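Teaching assistant's notes for section 4

Start the section by putting this record on the projector. Ask students to predict, before seeing the second block, whether RNA-directed DNA polymerase will look compact or extended. Collect guesses on the board.
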Amino acid sequence: MSIVLAGLSDLQIACYIDDVIIASHNFQDHLQRLELVFQRLTAANLKVKSSKCSFLQFAISFLGHTVREGQVLPDPKNLDSIKNTMPPRTKKQVRSFLGLTGFYRKFIPNYCKKAIPLTNLTKETSKFTWSEKEQLAFDSLKNCLISEPCLSLPDFSKPFALCSDASKFSLGAVLIQEDDTGFQHPVAFASRKLGPTEIKYSVCEKEALGILFAITHFKNYLYGSEFIVYCDQQSLSRIKTLKDPSSRISRWFLTLQEYSYKIIHKPGRLNHMADYLSRARYPNEDSVSITDIHEVHALNSNCTEFNLSSFPIEELIAKQISDSYCNNIKSKVESNFQFSPKSPKFFIKNDLLLCYREKTGRHDSKAKLVVPQSLVQNVLQLCHDNNSVAHSGLSRTLKRVKVNYFWHGLYHTVKQYIASCHSCIQRRGFAKSSKAPVQRIPTTDFPFQKCAFDAVGPLVTSTFGNKFIIAIFDYFTRYAEAYPVPNIQSSTVARVLLDFISRHGIMETLYSDRGSNFLSEAMMEVYQRLGISKRLTLSFNPHGNGLVERLNKTLIDTLSHLVSETQEDWYQHLPLALMAFRNAYHRTVEETPAFLLYGRDPVMPYDLIFSDPVRTYSDTPSYAQQLVNRLQSTYTLIKNNLEKSADEIQKHQKPFPKSKRICVGNLVYLHTPKIKLHTSKKLAKQNQGPFRVVKQNSLVSFEIQHINQPSNKQTVHVN
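Reveal the predicted structure now:
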């Protein structure tokens, strides 16, 4: 049936399996829609049974509900079944009763709270015992439904309002609308219990959480329209003008930026409905969802979204008249002006300016609305931001817009809109071609003047309980040390650093990433006492510590060739991997790290087969003097080689495009490839923001500050 009646949902014609419902505002429209449905049924060779049809009804029963003018109620037939239900005697009967009443939970405020004693009976570990507590819960649910609860149907042509409130233990919210007489009708209810951590929040934070809970749960009603939020916390009504709100509140209100709302202070004594829901106490033993969102489903599931097809024709005509471009085209059409052959074919129908193109594609000959500039933003939101189109790309959005709409400069408007879409920017990948060149670091003058260290792991736990490798690298000789460790806590890092210093002395400068184990108070005290200048690489920029990152990769690659199938013996092969690295020729320094450190080549296994006799010296002083001379000449050569290598790198790098350069005051997004725990990398947003650039430290280093969370300041790399 859904195939037969496809495309008629905008006419308030809905179907579910073989049930069809037709809604109209007047008798004439109703006859036209009936005729349209009969035509579809005839074309599909389908018949309807007259005894099962009801025509021209002001109230009908449909899918267990009674729908009448402006209201929705439970079906009286089902209420009779509930009224005659006897107290259950088994767990299965309890589940059946909860299933029946749960179908109408949208009509029962605090349904979860009322049903807790019965819900606890359905647990596999609980023994079935029917006491006074369960009987009271049973009677309470029955009485709530027997009293024929009623909710008002939402009218999407009128604004909504939210009443939000928070108490010590829970949150409450009511979605309301005013009728023509000014009387407020409830459309939906919501309430939930506060978690253990949330109970500790301040009063202001609880009220802010209540607003977040209310808006996000009533999203289907509120998204795309303006609404008012009433709360009894006066400070929140000025949240957008507060100079320094707490980071938690700022983060919550950042998620609500896509909504158009205004917060108005309403004292608790005047905020009765939400205040009552929030004051309701919820037992601690509640193990089921406390959220009670009572949705009233309209016939058209997309009715909360802006749709020009349901926009009043009179307002469209008025907006076209007030638009200079549309008004100019209208005047030309009325005067029979000859447009360019490449222009759309404009025409006026019922005072509305439309157009079409000569048929080259399936949709070209279709009449398209000429959209005034005041409605372009709404059309773009509908064709790009709408959940049903899910932020599609430029070509697909253009195709979707061109099917029904036209305006001057359509392509550039759509392109600019997608380029500035907040959600798309958060998911957008990073263009490698636009990366900034690597900055030159001053070369070193002697061994262990500058070092870098990093941690690798976790690996397979070895037989001695080691899971990580801490590697330390010398910038001058390229010599490396690596230590197998069970963890990378600050105490372990300090022990490794002291062991390294006992062998090679204290370095002047030590580089690392921003890991907390390298920046703890204990480690900072170690650096200070030893006189080490601590330098940090920028977040999400491994190139800043590229030499030690390359060492890590080399060690892992080498170990992969040496370990057994279980990989538990990796720590045994780590010395061999280090020996291979230390005795390997490095193109930058044109020597091996071992020779540059010791002034001689260590004897390797392959040297024992065919080798020259080991050089001998007459005494130790003569060896020392020759070693000093050899190392001095070698170090001079190394420094020249390092300078030459740095010059070559700078020479072959592509210049950073001027269009990609960033200045203080610019709005930017932060590329964050790391994802939160228990989330999917494929679905994660890759960029955070927006941030404002507050300071430029170098060509590639910037200090940024989140525009909605002033306390969120970071020093980052332009890449």
